[in-house]
Write a structure and sequence with these properties.
Layout lengths: L1 H18 L10 H16 L24
Length: 69
């Protein structure tokens, strides 16, 4: 009787370990992923493109120091 429980337990343990070793790979096209990343970066940083009248860089404009009379 012990032998049956041992084999059932060993079979259950083996099945559990084997099912835990499954890997699912999802591949994204590189161009689409890069385009999506650029869009997210633009939304986060709110960068204006040069054709939209922005400066074209992500650095803020430096204002001149105040003039003292």
């Amino acid at each position: 009787m012990k032998n049956i429980f041992f084999r059932a337990g060993l079979l259950t343990l083996t099945g559990t370990l084997l099912s835990g070793c499954v890997t699912i790979n999802i591949y994204f096209p590189a161009a689409a992923a890069e385009k999506a990343a650029d869009k997210i970066i633009e939304e986060v940083w709110q960068i204006k493109k040069p054709e939209e009248g922005g400066q074209g860089t992500d650095k803020p404009a430096v204002s001149p120091p105040p003039v003292q009379p």
